[in-house]
Specification:
Blueprint: E1 3-7, H1 16-24, E2 30-36, H2 46-59, E3 64-69, H3 73-81, E4 87-91, H4 98-110, E5 114-119, E6 137-141, H5 156-169, E7 175-179, H6 187-193, E8 197-200, H7 202-205, H8 210-219
Length: 220
């Protein structure tokens, strides 16, 4: 059974605390924190996500799964590490060279935070292969990062299959997380491809019964 990381990107401010509580009791495994800087992607969610992290820490013990869609990765690690997240994921496309990537990996580990590296739909898995032995999670974006509510890009499923095949052939212990446009209709395709952590936002938050939806997502 896959783990569900619930994206809180689409939660309305006026209902935030109640919605977060409803998510906390729905059976999700993580809160997925979509942090955008207005530069790496067009939207800026920094203030909103900092506020929501404070809410979550006051009502929940569920782990935080922080996804940085930002250029200045290290400063954002510092900003969100105060919430003691389980994992922080950064984008390979936001890094300049191999040294920076390795420095960020080590920096996260020094702060007792699990390491995730993400790739956009058009980025080849080869760009992160060399780092897989040193990280905990590879996040494959199944939509273009930056907006909620998009439709899953079908070609990204093949990328998940390739990544899963490489991880198994090389006896690596790396989770495969997928994020973007995932719902009850397509989640089974991503599970079959090898994903074991699935980010779902709109499909849960827009449903009438969070618990029922999360149960169905895990069972599909």
């Amino acid at each position: 059974m896959v783990e569900i990381s619930a994206s809180i990107l689409s939660i309305k401010n006026e209902n935030a605390i109640q919605t977060l509580y409803n998510l906390e009791t729905s059976g999700i495994d993580y809160f997925h924190i979509d942090v955008m800087d207005g530069e790496f992607v067009s939207d800026n969610t920094t203030s909103k996500m900092l506020e929501y992290c404070e809410y979550i820490n006051s009502i929940s013990n569920l782990p935080l799964d922080v996804h940085l869609m930002v250029n200045d990765i290290k400063s954002y690690i510092n900003s969100f590490s105060v919430f003691e997240p389980n994992m922080i994921t950064f984008h390979i496309e936001a890094t300049k060279n191999e040294k920076e990537v390795l420095d960020l990996i080590n920096y996260l580990k020094q702060n007792n935070i699990k390491v995730g590296i993400s790739i956009k739909p058009n980025t080849k898995i080869e760009s992160i292969i060399k780092y897989l032995p040193y990280i905990h999670t590879a996040l494959v974006m199944t939509v273009e990062p930056g907006k909620g509510g998009q439709e899953l890009i079908p070609t990204t499923i093949e990328k998940v299959k390739q990544l899963y095949k490489y991880i198994k052939e090389n006896n690596l212990e790396v989770d495969i997380e997928v994020d973007g446009g995932i719902n009850i209709e397509n989640i089974s395709l991503l599970k079959q491809a090898g994903a074991n952590i699935v980010v779902c936002g709109t499909s849960i938050v827009s449903s009438k019964d969070f618990k029922e939806t999360v149960t169905k997502l895990k069972q599909m």
